[in-house]
Amino acid sequence: MTAVPAPSPAAARKHPVDQVPAPGKLAVLSIQHVLAFYAGAVIVPLLIAGGLGLSAEQTIHLINADLFTCGIATLIQSVGFWKVGVRLPIIQGVTTTAVSPIIAIGLAATGGEGGAEGLPMIYGSIIVAGLFTFLAAPYFARILRFFPPVVIGTVLTTMGITLLGVSAGDITNYAEGTPATRDILYALGTLGIIVLVQRFFRGFLATIAVLLGLVIGTAVALLLGDTSFAGVTEASAFGVTTPFYFGWPAFSLTACVSMIIVMLITMVETTGDVFAAGEIVGKRIRPRNIAEALRADGLSTLLGGVLNSFPYTCFAQNIGLVRLTRVTSRWVVAGAGVIMIILGVLPKAGAVVEAIPSPVLGGASLALFASVALVGIQTLTTVDLTDNRNSVIVGTSLGLAMLVSFKPDIAGVFPAWAQVFVSSGVTVGAITAIVLNLLFFHIGRQQGSHVATDATGRRIGIEAVNAMDREEFVATFGTLFNGATWPLERAWQARPFADAPALREAIEDAVLAADRSEQDALIAAYPDMGTLVTADEEEAGRISQDVGSLALDGLSEEDVEALTDLSARYQEKFGLPFVAFLGRTDSFRQILADGVRRLDHSPEHERRVALTEVAEIAGDRFSIMVADANPIGSAWARKFESLR
C-alpha cells in the first residue's frame, strides 16, 4: 500500500473559504455561479438602454461593459487587496436600485429626448457616488441610524412600484395606443414560465428561473419570426470596452446627490449580504469586514463609471447558491469573475442578449421589480406604523413618489437644476423619507422618541433608560434572554447610551464577550423545538414568548414526531437544546431542513450558530420592545429569511 502523506499544518488550518477546489470542479462550479447571476446582471443595461432609447450597437456595448466590469468587481470583492474586498464567496453585480434614477438623470440631461448624449452625466454621477462610497465605508456604521427600516422599506417599496412602469413599457413594446396581442402574450408567457419554475423546481433550477424565462421566451419569438440573431453575425468577435467610450463624464450636483442616495441604500443591502454570507460560511463578521466590502462596492462603482457600466453591489441570489451547494470557496466565485471578464470581451455574447424581444424582457423584469416592492413591504411590516411619525413618513413619501411617477411633467415646474431630483419617483420618495425621518426622530428634542416600556407598560425614552439603576434596568429588559440577566447587568455598565442602537450593541457585546460556559448556559436556558411543539398553549407561553409562529400552526403528528426526533438527535450530538428563531420563516419544512443541516456542523461551528439563533430571538424581542431599533438587525434578518 502507498502511504498517503499527512496534510501540512498550514493546509489543515486553512478555512474552507480559502480552499481551492480541483481545476475541473472549480470550472464547473464557477460556470454554475455565472448562470445564476447572468439574467440579473444583463437585465440592468437592457432596461437602461430601453429607457434611454439607445441603439442596438450601444446596447451591446453596455452589456459587454457590464459583464467585463462585473468580473473585475467580483475579483475585487472575493480575492481582495489591502483593506478592499471582504474575501468571501460574493459575486458583484449591477444593482437594480439605480435603474430608475439613472434613466431620470439621462432624460434630464437631454431634455427628455434620451439617447447616448445623457450617458456622460450618468457616468459622472456614478464616479462621484463610487468615490463617496469608498471614502465613507469605515464611517458607515455611524450614519446607518439615519436609515432605519421605515426609510429603507419606503424606498424599496417605491422603487419596486415605479420600476413597474419600465416593465410596462417593455411589455407593450412602447406602443402608442393599444398594444399588440402577441406582445402581451409574450410577456405573460415569460412571467408564467418564471412562476412555474419557481413552483415546481427546487435548488439550482429555481435560482435561474428568470434566466429560463428569458431563454424560452426568446426561443419562441425566434421560432415565430419575431426576433432575429442577425446582430450576432454582424457583431465583432472580440472587443474591449474603453474608458469613457461615450464621452468624458459630466458632473451635475443634483445627479451626484441622487446617485449617492442610491449608494447609501445599496450600502445597507451590502451590509445584510455580508452578514448572511458570513453566517453561511461560518465566519464572524466584524465592522472592519463591512468596511472592506463597502470599499469594494465603492471602487467597483467608480470603475463602472470609467468603464461604461453602473453601480455595483453584492448579488443575493449567488449567496443563496452558496447556501444551496455548500461550496464556500471564494475561489469558485473568483473563477466566475474570470468567466465574466471573458464574456465581456465577446461582443457576440452581448448581441445574443440584445436580441431578447422587449415584451419577453418586460415579463421577466415585472417579476424582478415586483419582488423589490415585496421586500420593501416586508421591511415595513417590521415598523411600528401605529406610531404616527412612521405613518406620516411612509404615507407622505409614497404619495409624493407616486405623484411624480404618474405625472412626470410636474418636473417642468421646477428650475433646471432641480429637475433631476423631482423627475424620478424613487428619488423623490427617498429624499422625502430621509428628510422626514430626520425631522421626526433626530432634529430637536424628540418627545415621542421612546425606546422601551417599563413594568407598567408606560413608554420611556433613552434618558429614562440612562437614569435607571441596575435592578430597574434588568427588570425592564429581563425578557430578552429567557430570564438570563448577566448580559443585561454587564450592558448596564456601558451607560450612558446615545440611542437605541447603542443600547442594543451594548447588550450584544455583553453576550459575545462572555466566556464559553456562560454562553452555553445562555443557550441551555432556551427550550428545544421538540419541547415547544409538544407543550400545550399555557405551557408554551410560560417557556417561550415566541410561540405562535405560523411555522408551528397545524402540525400533523408526523411533523411533531419528526421535530421531536430531530431535537433528540441534536441534544445527543451537541449537548444543547435545538433552538431556532421562528421569526425567520413561516415554513415548518424550512425549520426541519435547517435543523438537519445543522446536524452536519462541527460542535464548535454549531455553538456559534446556536448563539446566533439566541441573538436573533433577543433581537426580535428588542425590536418589538424598542421603537428605534438598530436598522442593521432588520437589514440582515431579511437576508437570513431567504438564504438560510
SSE topology:
Elements: H1 9-13, H2 23-52, H3 56-78, E1 92-94, H4 99-109, H5 119-136, H6 140-143, H7 149-171, H8 181-200, H9 204-207, H10 209-223, H11 230-234, H12 253-281, H13 287-306, E2 312-314, H14 316-325, H15 330-344, H16 347-354, H17 358-380, H18 388-406, H19 419-422, H20 425-441, E3 450-453, E4 459-461, H21 462-467, H22 470-476, H23 486-492, H24 500-512, H25 516-524, H26 529-534, H27 537-543, H28 557-574, H29 588-598, H30 603-625, H31 631-643
Antiparallel strand pairs: 1-2, 3-4
Helix pairs in contact: 2-3, 2-4, 2-15, 3-13, 3-15, 3-16, 5-12, 5-13, 7-17, 7-18, 7-20, 8-10, 8-17, 10-17, 12-13, 12-14, 12-31, 18-20, 23-24, 25-30, 28-29
What integer is the average pLDDT?
Answer: 78
How many runs of DSSP E, i.e. beta strands?
4
How far the N terminus sits from the C terminus, by CA atoms, comes to 43 Å
Tell the overall outline: globular
Q: Number of helix segments?
A: 31
- Helix share, percent: 55-70%
Describe this structure in words.
The chain is mainly α and 644 residues long. It has 3 domains: 25-138 and 175-366, no CATH class; 450-514, no CATH class; 519-627, Oxo-4-hydroxy-4-carboxy-5-ureidoimidazoline decarboxylase (UraD-like). Helices cover 66% and strands 2% of the residues. The protein contains 31 helices and 4 strands. The chain has a two-stranded antiparallel ribbon with strand order 1-2. A hairpin with a 5-residue loop joins β3 (450-453) and β4.
